[in-house]
Design goal:
With 290 residues, the protein is α/β, with parallel strands linked by helices. Helix content is 49%, strand content 11%. It binds zinc ion. The site of zinc ion has 5 residues, from β1.
Length: 290
Amino acid sequence: MKMAFTLDDLPLWPMSYPPAGYTVAGMVDAIIMALDRHKIRGVYAFANSWSLLKHPEFKTIIESWTAAGHHVANHTHSHIELNDVSVEAYIKDIELGESHLSRWLAKAPQLYFRHPLCYWGDTREKRDAVRSHLSDRGYRTVDVTSWLYEWRWNRAYRNCLERNDDEGRTSLGQSFLKFSLAQLAYDDLCARNWFGHDVVGITVGHPVPFFADIADEFFSTLIHAGVDFVSLGEAMNDATYAQVASVPTGKFLVLQQKLAEVAGKPFAMIEPHSQGLFDEITELGVGQTG
Ligand SMILES: [Zn+2]
């Protein structure tokens, strides 16, 4: 299975400040080290710029990311969601992100954009207007074929951190690795069935405590299972990705699921045998919102 790994919400997702014992820089460094150890090069991080105004020192986090040979892409300034706002407000936020991130965007081989939550437009008017703005500005829009749902594990993990439950943390790591293998294989199969050919997948992680701690083991488990991490450029060469934002939808789904849902042929988000585990992890994360 070929797959491009991407990172979202560099340096910090709005309002998800790390808990005691973690720093934003430390989490990003741990992910950089894990990528380096597994020779996964030139990873695109889709960045929000809001936190750079509030915490100017976070610029050094983006500098460390690019100094390690990785790239930056636009993910709006404040992580607003297209389903919730007007076209004008959304485009203004894209432009604001572009102006704050320009020095890093300019260094990347390709200008990429990812919609927050991959919401590319829930009405034809919004989809068309934003799509043509992005294309006029030279952006290619990047969607995903697999969520890792590591944010769900992260909530349960934060609950473990709060009660010093080391055993719980270890067990979350193990269940995540097991889940990831099943979910990525399922998404790969669904994409192949939907598009009618093998698809170079695109997945995404976030700089959150759980992922920072598991990243090294996550990459080694996947590589051991036969996942070949390729560049985002190689994935985007797949003609499949011309179908990103091809129809209006406001659903929180990966690419093949959005297209199938609009076509009236939806399939399950979660790998069916893993749904029980997924629900259990969701339950363990109650009380956390990050
Ligand atoms: Zn995001």
